[in-house]
Every structure is written in structure tokens, then in C-alpha cells.
Amino acid sequence: MRSKFTSIAKVRKQQRDIIETHLAKARFEKHEIKQKIISLYKDIDKIKTPTSGNIFLMNIAREKLVIMRKAKDILNEKLFAKNIEIDKLKEQYKLTNIEFEKIKYLEEQDFQESIKKIKKEESLNMDEIANMLFINKGRN
Question: CB of 16 within 8 A of CB of 97?
Fold first, then answer.
């Protein structure tokens, strides 16, 4: 049975599902960024700065640490941006889900109204049939 709200409900559900997919993707990307940060911390901890020896090797080790710390800062910025994106997507999901639920409620109300109308028509038809049978029984 279709309602005048069925097509609207379908569109709202598609919108909600799209946002849900984007939210899942953003959460996955956040997880990946966190894993990269953890890996980078481990790599930074593994690097040992030489205390003696060739100055060239000391400079290379120091530069490597500087580069890794910059990479860590960039990843932290990406993580912060991803958290903001996830918060926005959560809010969008919440709003689209509310809209979807409203339409589903209206659709259900429309179905109930249609069922009442059909039952009323059925009742009137049954009364008419009963009257016809009563009249035919009285003639015989």
C-alpha cells in the first residue's frame, strides 16, 4: 500500500543513509589518523640522537626528528579537523533522522486513515448486502 508520504519517506531515508555512510567513513579515517599518530610516536621514541661522533650524522638525526614532529603536528591538525567534521555529520544525521521519523509517522497516520476508510466502506457494503438479503428473504 502506498501513501502520499511514501516517496518522501524514501528520499529522506536515502538522505539519512548517505549521511550515515559519510559518518562511518569519517570515523574510519579518524581511526587511521590516530593509528598513524601512534606509529609516529613510536618511531620518534625509537630514534636515538648520537651524543658523539660525526656532526653530519648528528644533524641528520636532528633533522629527522624535526621532520617527524612536523608530520605529527600535521596529523594532529588533521585529527582535529576530522573531529569537527564528525561532529557536523552527527548533527546532520540527527536532523535528517528526525525528518525521516516525522515523515514515517505521517505515512503511518495516512495508512491508518486509509484503513479506517476501507473498513467503513466495507461495513457500508456489508450493511447493504445484509439489507438486500433481508429484502430478498421477505419476498420469498
Answer: yes
